[in-house]
Amino acid sequence: MKITRLSLLVLSTLITGLFSCNKIESIETIQSDKVVEQTSNTAPSTSGDYEQTDLVLGDKLNNPYLLDNMTAAKDNLAAKGINSSISCKIRATHYYVKFKPQNFDQYDDLVSDTTLQLYDYPLDYEIVNRGNGYHDPSIVDTLPTYQYAAVKTDFKFNDTIPYEIIASLYIPEVDSSLLGTDLENETYVDELLD
After folding, report:
1. Domain total for the chain?
2. Residue 126 to residue 146: CA distance in whole angstroms
3. Model pLDDT for residues 67-101, shown as the tens digit of each residue
4. What is the reported pTM?
5. One domain for residues 63 and 109
């Protein structure tokens, strides 16, 4: 009787082990299939079954950093009795710029400037659909699209790259004269931004 119980115990242990191994293999196979599926759904494929979606723009938005809008915000706060503890002068601290590279050499020079945070779409438009990129429809696909940025007013433009200053901006959260040396006026800046 002892041999039979021992045999059954060993046999059941082996069967459990075999089934466990099969389950682990199945799980690993499923997990690798998921990885393959995820990879094939997110990475471009050479077989042509991958569809890239482009960023789609909607309506033009009212840029809150325009000088007129910041002046209106300051006036609204003053009407509510909220005033800055430091003199607040609304003035251009930045320019909203559209860079217009004419070829990829100019584009490469532009993107190599580490002081710029460039966007390939205009920042003052609603984004209807986030996509992989945006190419201005007025520019042929074989040329680089416009690049947009906010640059400080003392930014040194590269003379070889065409650009257009779209608007003058006041960005209070980087205005050290408004924030104060110890950020004592930070609450007012937050109110102004709100």
Report:
1. 2
2. 17
3. 999 999 999 999 999 888 888 899 999 999 999 99
4. 0.69
5. yes
